[in-house]
Amino acid sequence: MIQVECPFCGKRNLTEFKYGGQAHVARPDNIAEVSDADFARYLFMRKNPKGTHQERWNHAMGCRRWFNAVRHTVTDQFWATYKVGEQAPLPPLDWDGVQSKSEHRSEAGAR
After folding, report:
1. How far apart are alpha carbons 109 and 111 in whole angstroms?
2. Distance between CA atoms of 111 and 94, rounded to whole angstroms?
3. Which residues lie below 8 Å from residue 89, measured CB to CB, with a gap of 6+?
4. How is domain 3-25+34-110 classified at the CATH fold level?
5. CB-based contacts of 1: which residues, under 8 Å, 6+ apart?
6. How far is the C-alpha of 59 from the C-alpha of 75, rounded, in Å?
7. How many CB atoms lie under 10 A from the CB of residue 93?
8. What are the residue ranges spanned by the domains of the chain?
9. What is the C-alpha separation between 29 and 6, in angstroms, rounded?
10. CA nearest 12: which of 56, 61, 47?
11. Using an 8 Å Cβ cutoff, are 55 and 21 in contact?
């Protein structure tokens, strides 16, 4: 079972959470002046990377609060979760998404 660390409640099963899409998408400042094509891109076009991705998540079956996460899209391994408005804790470039954060740190320390 995949465990997700809610920044407010602690570790819980993935089934308690709802995916909310890409994190850190800036809303246009003045929507009235944005072209239809640019507004459509804002609404519908999102990154879909193979690898590390910053995402929004909602703890729907718990505290019901929104937070952000850094997750590997191939392995579903979460590197970190953090509150909305905080800086994203990005993984090191050598993280392949297979190991957890603690496993990666202990292996890096053994080198």
Report:
1. 5
2. 13
3. 70, 79, 80, 82
4. Folate-binding fold (3.30.2270)
5. 13, 14
6. 21
7. 6
8. 3-25+34-110
9. 30
10. 61
11. yes
CA angle 59, 61, 67 (to 5 degrees): 5
State the distance between the two ends of the chain, measured CA to CA, in whole angstroms. 30
Q: What SS3 state is found at 88? A: coil
| 17 contacts: CB under 8 Å, gap ≥ 6 | 4, 6, 57, 58, 59, 60, 61
Dist. CA 33–CA 64, nearest whole Å: 34
Q: pLDDT tens for the chain, 111 residues: list them.
A: 899 999 999 999 999 999 999 999 999 999 899 999 999 999 999 999 999 999 999 999 999 999 999 999 999 999 999 999 999 998 998 898 888 888 887 776 655
What are the DSSP E strand ranges found in the chain?
3-6, 10-13, 18-22, 52-58, 66-72, 78-83
